[in-house]
Amino acid sequence: MKKLTALTAAVAMASAMQVAAEVPNGYTAHALAHVYVDVLPNISIGGVSAGGSEPCYSCNNNDSSTSGGSYDGATDPSNGSAGAGDPGDPQGTSYSDQTPGQTAGLSFVTNKSLGSIMTGYIEGSVSFLVHANAQQVTFACAATDLFKGNIPTRGGFSAETTHDDEIPLYADYGCRIDVPNGNPINGYSNVGVYGSNYVEHGSSGWEFLQTNYITFENNHPEPTQYVTLTTKWLQDDHEKRQGQYSGFVKLIAMVDGSY
Questions:
Q1: Domain count across the chain
Q2: Residue 132 CB contacts under 8 Å (≥ 6 apart), including other chains
Q3: Contact predicate 253/30, CB 8 Å
Q4: Does residue 63 lie within any of the structural domains?
Q5: 105: helix, coil or strand?
Q6: Which residues, other chains included, contact 203 with Cβ-Cβ below 8 Å and sequence gap of 6+?
Q7: Which of 17, 134, 165, 187 sees the fewest Cβ atoms within 10 Å?
Q8: pTM of the model as a whole
């Protein structure tokens, strides 16, 4: 591996609270953001079943039509949630927590709410403040699925139901890496492509999918700046158990474009 110049890195929340990040061997640095979303109560009532019709008790006496009423909280205008009937729309208003900390066996520097959802795509953006002594820096993104109760167990707790306690990462979207004062070299895209193999972070049980590395060139005299990662998860189970589902997003930073 080509020897890299020294990298002095620290990662901070978008609120500008700085938290030091250890740099293994002086070559790379990484930091985690904890993210969470609330799955709201959802109920649907079907009307007419296939192959038959039901009487319309609520209709006027002169109306012989049948009805099949339904309520779906995801499209109820009085609900006020971030859910949507069309899963193609990004969902989840973002809020920031000012306190870094540790949960489920991992330390994080940013704690980010992704809002609430019933069904649909969940888009999350997290920002890190990266200090570097080079104007060419390489980044990669990694992310986990979201798990109920912050417990990274795949497949749910019961073999009797297909409604597990996991919201999968929408890997096809990739992870967009935004560097305000820099652009990818060689005309590359700033959207990283996730690999297919999960890699465990330490011994915590949390498994991440990681993107390819993308090198950014910076023309700003001070290369220290915020780097934002944006990725998505997909909640397409209308009977997903309500509650909070959590996971992590990781920024990996290297200098000199070598990896």
A1: 1
A2: 7, 8, 9, 223, 224, 253, 255
A3: yes
A4: no
A5: coil
A6: 105
A7: 187
A8: 0.69
